[in-house]
Amino acid sequence: MTSQTVQNPTSSQADDLTLSPLAPTAEDELLAFYREYLPRGEDVARYCAWRRQRGNADGGVEPTVARQGGRLVGAVSSIRVTLQSSGRRVAGSWQVDSVVAPSMRGRGVGRRLVDAAAAPYVVAMAKGTAPGMYRLRRRAGFEEVPGANYLVAIVGNRTRGSRRRRLAFPAVHALSAFRRVGRRAGELHRVTHFDGRFDDLAEAMVDAPEWTPVKTSAYLEWRYRDCPEREYLILAAPGTREPGGAVVVRMDHTRREGYLVDALYDPRNQALGHLLVGGALRVFSREGITAVWTLATSRPARRVLRAWGFLPTRRTPHFTFRSRDVDLRTGCNIWHGDGDAELY
């Protein structure tokens, strides 16, 4: 997609609507637009600025903006991601931070932005979208991804929150604990950086049957160690000879909730998956966490999670995609930390 502004052929002269990638000199204008019109606009602006520093690498962001008479009236940002499967790599994107000024809603601006933002990529994905944008993307041809619901495991007896949640948790706890009967969690150790083993893992995953984001050590360092105002714990499996073998977790001690943000291993290696998930639950329990949430679309990974007591919920980030020749419905390996939804 070029940086030249192109007149939208379907817009009327009265609209004077143009769509284009964001000009480098207009970044402050976009961040001010996000602050004004998005519920968590300050957070969005901060993370957008952080991603813009990434440039053209995976994780970097390319905003597409709509203007009427030169005034910014809408935006959709695309986070770059490379997907690989069965020896093939394709250019993909996560569509995030979609917003149209209230005065322009109901006039097709959002649909045009979604189409324009998706055009440069083989596959465009969206996760964590608001209900209105979810419906818009579905009308624009985006497909649902199977297994895109949150899973939860109960690792303690204490609960907090609403009365409904307190009443529901005893049954969930009992079933979650029943599934872990006979399983002993191994011990993971904390690591402070991602080394070359994760580059080896990214290369080893190129022939995996499920579509998987390419996550090099440089990307992982940027995403989980340099992320502003986010603190992640990286837990690795000791003594494994296989490339990779780590989980990324986050804890909210106030709510006593934890998040299995990412699992960095080949889902075909079920033994390593059990070691990582069981070890992570052991750490959560030791920290006083009572409920652990995650999202994993990989079918083999979900089998491991279910074996450790993770149960499906009706909560979903509305994970959808649109592509010319990639079908994520046949299998993809996406985790909670992929895209931008985990940051909010």
- Tally of DSSP helical segments: 9
Structure summary, number of beta strands: 16
Could you tell me the radius of gyration in angstroms? 21 Å
- Proper CATH architecture of the largest domain: 3-Layer(aba) Sandwich
CATH fold group of the largest domain? Aminopeptidase
Task: Label the structural class.
Answer: alpha+beta
What does this entry look like structurally?
With 344 residues, the chain is of the alpha+beta class. It folds into 2 domains: 6-144, Aminopeptidase (3-Layer(aba) Sandwich), CATH 3.40.630.30; 151-315, 3-Layer(aba) Sandwich (Aminopeptidase), CATH 3.40.630. Helix content is 30%, strand content 25%. The protein contains 9 helices and 16 strands. The chain has helices spanning 27-37, 41-52, 109-118, 131-139, 163-179, 197-204, 217-225, 270-286, 299-307; strands at 6-7, 17-21, 61-68, 71-85, 88-100, 123-126, 143-144, 151-154, 189-190, 212-213, 233-236, 246-252, 257-264, 291-294, 311-312, 320-323. The strands form 2 sheets. Strands 1, 2, 3, 4, 5, 6, 7, 10 and 16 form a 9-stranded mixed β-sheet that branches. Strand 5, helix 3 (109-118) and strand 6 form a beta-alpha-beta unit. It is globular, with a radius of gyration of 21 Å. It starts with 5 loop residues before the first strand and ends in a 21-residue tail after the last strand. Residues 1-14 and 158-167 have low confidence and may be disordered.
